[in-house]
Amino acid sequence: MQKRKLGSAGPDVPVICLGANVYGxxxxxxxxxxxxxxxxxxxxxxxxxxxxxxxxxxxxxxxxSETIIGKWFAKTGKRKDVILATKVGMEISESKKGLxxxxxxxxxxxxxxxxxxxxxxxxxxxxxxxxTPLEETLGAFDALIKEGKVRYIGxxxxxxxxxxxxxxxxxxxxxxxxxSLQPHYNLVEREAYETDLLPVVEKYQVGVIPYFSxxxxxxxxxxxxxxxxxxxxxxxxxxxxxNDWGFGVVAALDEVAxxxxxxxxxxxxxWLLAQPGITAPIASATSDKQxxxxxxxxxxxxxxxxxxxxxxxxxxxxxxxxxxx
Length: 325
Hints:
325 residues, alpha/beta, eight-stranded parallel sheet, two-stranded antiparallel ribbon, 13 helices
């Protein structure tokens, strides 16, 4: 399994990160156990979850994904074989949200208990909390690093300006620093990362693990009409791409996939892996076929003309502009 260093100071990780947001939502516990076994056998041992997963699913309250992973750790004894990333900050309840030090302390203990472990490899701020001073948030994270409860820290959903401020705040105070950023980035969501975030991650050598790497499944090619989305768990998320621009991106993926004897999903991930700053795209799977696509994406090397074809197809319009047009 190909690996890359996560930022300048982080661990070596596989070039695909297994997304655990589907655990306890669209993938039940028994199937999750089987997937984790298969993923580790294939070398995909970098797993990303969050305390809030999957609060949005009917009957769930948050913590389901972490709980299932913790049960798998307890059953298999494979905690030491996994690079585990989780997050704090998204609203679980009115009193459980944000990045205030007292809440970070409470949330990490809750996550550790659910995960049945005594440490987290990469603990991430799930989103910026502008109401809490950065030095307070980073001081709380630094204390967890010193205590050994957290090995590294990362950020998610930060703007370029705030990420740079956070990194400079850590330098100023001698705190542990964000080694990674988790932004929304894929072939149909390019502008924010490429214009706002890329200069910062390159300057500070921050690792990048983009989420929604397959645009909630749109870039796999399985949504080719509105009807295709109607019974899908993530169908509402992809409807903004169901236009000439979006279908043009899928057509380019089809062309490149055919030329390489591959699939659109593998090509979309391989394109991300060829972009500046990217360490390991995050993608989830709910079937053996989807997991195989993740593994095979790590082996696919796109030639320059293929990368250019995808860049041109996806650069014509933004989703919002496509809808307006």
